[in-house]
């Protein structure tokens, strides 16, 4: 997919003017490009498949200026997938065949969106999944976006896109008090965003007291909001001028044009 094909400036696309490969050979499998989910500044995400099924392929941003960042982010995300291996609702990491590239299991379903009504029991199962992630000493951090939650075709929840997730290994200081405090605060932020998700998608499952509680931001979330909201607003204003559809949802939320 080229910059000309999308109508966006090439510098706003992770692959620039390069087209993604129509076919990939990975672990003896010949995979064909089936669908592009997202192509933005940070990554190109697409589904490839063969007779054995589909996989999700994410390519981080390339180029001399920020290619190093794409490689670091991909390495970090692969590390999170390995940390969460074996949990139901977390796609299985299949390979990281090159710097800045990772492949993981494709789970059938669709990303959540604000304003929809989730099935009964879905959010409770999502909360249980997040608790299991937390038990692995990981904070998801990016639960503010409903597009990072998958409603599976079987009705079960799944999580993906761990670029911003937090994990500090215990053998590198993660067991020390400052690191444990930071992890606990970030996990509090995850639970806050779960509460906000429930308030917006299924307010009928909450009492008035629970709705009021769901609006109380943890300290770290409030600090991040004050620090980054001005930057976020400026970024959105700029992108609306050069890329009018930049607000489209995440990597499983739409077909890239």
According to DSSP, the number of beta strands is: 9
- The total count of helices amounts to 6
Class by helix and strand content?
Answer: alpha+beta
Overall pLDDT level: 85
Radius of gyration: 19 Å
Unreliably modeled segments: 1-5, 249-257
> Order of strands side by side in the largest beta sheet?
1-2-3-4-6-5
Strand content: 15-25%
Overall outline: globular
The major pleated sheet works out as: 6 strands, antiparallel
Tell me roughly what share of residues is in helical segments: 25-40%
Instruction: List the helices and strands in order.
Output: HEEEEHEEEHEEHHH
Q: What is the rounded distance between the termini?
A: 9 Å
Report on this model:
There is one protein chain. By secondary structure, the protein is of the alpha+beta class. It contains 6 helices and 9 strands. The strands form 2 sheets. Strands 1-2-3-4-6-5 form a 6-stranded antiparallel β-sheet, covered by helices on one side. The protein has a 3-stranded antiparallel β-sheet with strand order 7-8-9. A hairpin with a 4-residue loop joins strand 8 and strand 9. The longest helix has 25 residues. The protein is globular.
